Amino acid sequence: MNYFSDQKGIIKRYINEEGAWDNHLANTKDYIINFLSGRKPESVAIMGSGWLLDAPVTYLEENVKRVMLLDINHPPQIKHKIRRFNNMELVVADISGGGISEVFNLVKEHKKTSIKRDPAKIELQGLELLQKADCIISLNILNQLDMLLADYLKKFRIYDDSELNCLRKKVQKLHIDSLVPDRSCLITDYEEEIYNPDGTLSSRKELILTELPPAKNEKRWKWHFDSSGSYYPGKRVVFNVVALEL
Known about the structure:
Number of strands: 8
Helix content: 25-40%
CATH class: Alpha Beta
Low-confidence stretches: none
CATH architecture: 3-Layer(aba) Sandwich
Mean pLDDT: 94
CATH topology: Rossmann fold
């Protein structure tokens, strides 16, 4: 389902961008530090830990008793890196709420029977583990949860765009609903801007299909995601990012 290749693609793009991501990563880390420093939690769960590019690792090591890093896969380099951190643990988890197995089995079932299951009836579950954490951080992952599932389904042409958007919205809403009020923060890209080589705006696309929750301490910034023209040939891509305390 391309989860591993997508994860490898992220680190490859980060390296190729040669510092273009630095402002986005710094803004993310600063927001998390400010969020946690006002609460002084003993335990923190980070959803979408990935390569830890945008996680304030040093702060977490020095100020949090227990850090749970949640992702569908933890790269070998990260497994090696956190060995020296006694307070950090890697948790393999489908943070889409079970969407990976549901969608995989849906496609498998369709191949055998040609039965098209209503995407609105796909069953998703919350993450009980989050209830055990003093603070929860959704780390630049919300938009990826639904897109990877939708991209996999597109290969088999089972659903049209409106049906896929129904599933995407459901996945996004479940993720937001799993963030416990008063002890969670959400950081996500919410809009994609595509620029022509001359710097003019070519197009703009919303990435979040459900409503973002009421929040405080809202911060926004731009993530210069692709300046080389490799994501969309000949174009430059910028994501608009929002950070919220829920």
